[in-house]
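OP here, attaching both records as promised.
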Amino acid sequence: MKYFVNKSSIVRKIWGKADTTLFIFAGAAAEFALNKAVDWLYFTGRLPADPLGRLFSTVTYARQIIFAEEDAALASIDKITAIHKGVEQSRGAQIPDWAYRDVLFMLIDYSIRSFELLDRQLTLAEKIEVFNVFNRVGLRMGLTGLPANFIQWKQMREEHLQNNLLQSTYTYHLYQQYKKHLGWLRYVLLTKVQLMLVPPRVGDLLDWGNPSWIKPVLKAYRFLRRLRVEAFLRNVLLPAEYKVQIMGMDIV
């Protein structure tokens, strides 16, 4: 039986833990709010109306690709492509190629950053494996201008961070929605975790100061992970209506 992502791949280990997956999307949520193409996420109205629901639907699609047999994974990628084409037709415009690449680059970068923040440093070979998996997704989607290798991706990622981010009214509004749906305490934790995760360029644009006090909290959480008792704390800090979905993310 052939899988889109090999069962021994580090990508399965990264995406097989609920907290790592949530950290990936916490980082991406910060950067989405600054992306110059964020207006596309507002076009259907789903993101600002229900940012957490949109998060979990996106997680579902990503995991359908990573843990599925190859044919099923390819079908999921094709479905994502068709959804985006439908949005483009409804709006009468095309999502910029660089915006598609931005999303792919975020998945690569925050997969690496989240695992390293919560677990350990990845080897170069493991980072290349993360790149290869998501680059294959991009190739299947027919994206243009993709990097040829991990080294080229690092260069392009930095260029995208410098050229494609901007603090705007969308940034403010999206964070107001995060606060509304999470509540004050969860919102503060989200923003501090994001500052630990994001590249310096993103942190500078968000301008939220120093995340120093969250560092010992994360250190304690990593200790709880080694004892395998972190689920209690994680579930306390997340909205009750999403606990079932969150618990279902733990595979490895």
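Record two, same layout:
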Amino acid sequence: MRNNPKTVIVTGASQGIGAAIVQAFLARGYNVVGTARNATKSQELSPSDHLALIDGDIGQFNTAQKVAELAINKFGSIDAVVANAGIFVVKPFTDYTTDDFHALISTNLAGFIHITQLAVKQMQAQKTGGSVVAITAALADNPIAGVTASLSMITKGGLETVTRHLAMEYAKQHIRFNAVAPGAVDTPLHANDSKESLTAQSPMATISTVEDIASAVVYLTEAHQITGEVLHVDGGAHLGKW
């Protein structure tokens, strides 16, 4: 890494996968701005000289502005973004409500778009390239019988598509766009799900840890020849029927 630490913004940073991503980057010497609705109340993270926490709804543009400004004012640059903030709603298709759909769009799509637009503008000004990693889902490519997440996957599939398009749009400026697509992950989100139901979603019959996802994110952030890639961390679930 260069003498001046790079700065990465992590959304959905307060717990679970997001907190693990923050910790992984801190361990590698990055400056990190972590944001979530209750980031400053995180039980897993504490502010430091290299970590700034800021509360807010990343689906709102004014929150994204505050996050970007904090990164620039405190650390002097924006070198990478991890768009981790997301919600996952499982219902039969006909049971989804308008409110469900709007919430999914706000967090999963607007939460990616606003902060990424601001980060790309800053990366262009810096002229040193950059990285954006989105968190999608293995289910976007490989539906599983009994996991009724169709509207959630509209948004995750959209993130995969925009990742590929932006990778091409900004390739010559060395601003890279990739995504990590987790399968079942051991997080509080699945606290009420049985181990058997989660391992059944993987050909390897395993459940990923938050550290597995964080390692994949760091890898893509630092892999300077990789762009437009969707890296599945799902025990092989995206391969198809098993």
